[in-house]
Design a protein that fits this description.
This protein is α+β, with helices and mostly antiparallel strands. It contains twelve helices and twelve strands. The strands form three sheets. Strands 10-9-8-11-12 form a five-stranded antiparallel β-sheet. The chain starts with a strand and ends in a 20-residue tail after the last helix.
């Protein structure tokens, strides 16, 4: 029986472009180890153009990207309507897409819309699941409506009629707070603020990335936890992982920022499984599973939690396309849950096929309207 052709897409125009390369490399190796698939890779350059498979493979393996992108752009007519995705037509017949594009395009639903138009299966949640979960404000509204505990928050808009003042923030949420661009990932556009000056600087930074900003109350004596979730209808929840950066907890100002996640986490203390009371562990896993369901997620996700000094958990946010770099906790959580990388990647591909088959059973038929017969207006 011929192998299914899996196309890994990575890169994109987000701040997580280089992180995506590393995630794609690890998924490529995992799928290769599974031994069940023919593999191609497609890099999405920062200008939004899909590159050919040969150059994409070199980029995934850390070749200098700029000259390869320049060469490709010279080989095509970029003014053609479908030029940004034209590289796809030169691939062998595609059986399923495996997006590994963090942030914009990959996690906001854009690529999933393309896959659906192309009538191809893909790994991960449907467009609406990604789009909902990518917006931190909408996510919190849905979590709150479904009784899933999360931190108190306020929302402000760039050039809004009523700017959110520090006085209001401090009164409603206390100090410190975290200021977050509503539609960004991996701690980009996020700052900690505990006074007027820091708050204004944090707003200015977050508004670089989005016109809508979430201002979120801090948790007392926090520990940060992560939980992996995979599956469609039959959902699996991983062991819980904990991490703590220097000077985090109590009155400390440390937190798990972009540098700690992807550049240097040598000073971060990891713990898998997290040492928690059994009842708290069960509660966190139940919260993660329920959030996965109400946010319409499928295939894969990572749920990020905060737990306070009294072991009360708060769901922070979902990540619908979690990092799979050597530093990514999502990757390690499944190892501790007795699912290695090859098995995990294989399961995710199978979930993609399963979701596609289920989607094909949904009826989109319509009834022909026939001839229009318009009524009268004002007696005419």
């Amino acid at each position: 029986m011929s192998k299914k052709h899996v196309v890994l897409l990575f890169g994109g125009n987000s701040s997580e472009h280089d992180v995506s390369k590393r995630s794609a490399y690890n998924y490529y190796q995992a799928l290769k180890e599974a031994g069940k698939y023919d593999l191609s890779v497609v890099a999405i350059a920062q200008n939004g153009f899909f590159l050919d498979a040969k150059r994409s493979f070199e980029i995934m393996n850390q070749a200098d990207e700029a000259p390869l992108v320049a060469e490709y752009m010279e080989s095509i007519d970029p003014t053609e309507t479908l030029a940004p995705i034209a590289a796809l037509k030169d691939l062998p017949p595609i059986d399923i897409f495996f997006p590994v594009v963090h942030g914009n395009l990959g996690e906001d639903g854009t690529l999933q819309g393309l896959f659906r138009l192309l009538k191809k299966p893909y790994v991960g949640a449907a467009l609406r699941g990604h789009a909902i979960s990518f917006d931190k404000v909408i996510t919190k509204e849905i979590l709150t409506a479904n009784g899933i505990r999360n931190t108190k928050y306020l929302v402000t808009y760039q050039n809004g009629d009523q700017p959110l003042t520090w006085a209001t923030v401090e009164k409603e949420l206390g100090s410190p707070v975290f200021v977050k661009a509503a539609n960004q990932g991996s701690s980009v556009g996020i700052s900690r603020a505990e006074n007027e000056a820091e708050y204004q600087a944090a707003l200015a930074d977050s508004f670089k990335y989005d016109r809508k900003v979430l201002v979120e109350a801090a948790v007392n004596g926090p520990r940060e936890l992560e939980v992996g979730v995979i599956g469609n209808d039959d959902i699996l929840v991983s062991e819980i992982g904990a991490h703590q950066v220097p000077d985090q907890g109590g009155d400390g100002k440390g937190w798990y920022d972009y540098k700690s996640k992807f550049v240097d986490n040598s000073a971060v203390a990891f713990e898998i499984p997290a040492k928690l009371p059994e009842a708290v562990t069960a509660e966190i896993k139940a919260m993660a599973k329920k959030a996965y369901q109400v946010l319409n997620l499928a295939g894969e996700a990572r749920m990020d939690f905060l737990i306070d000094e009294n072991n009360v958990p708060y769901l922070g946010e979902p990540n619908t396309l979690p990092g799979f770099t050597n530093m990514s906790l999502f990757k390690r959580l499944w190892d501790y849950s007795d699912i290695n990388n090859a098995k995990l990647a294989d399961m995710m591909v199978q979930y993609g096929f399963e979701a596609y088959e289920r989607e094909q059973q949904i009826s989109y038929s319509f009834e022909s309207l026939g001839e229009e017969k318009v009524g009268t207006f004002n007696g005419q």
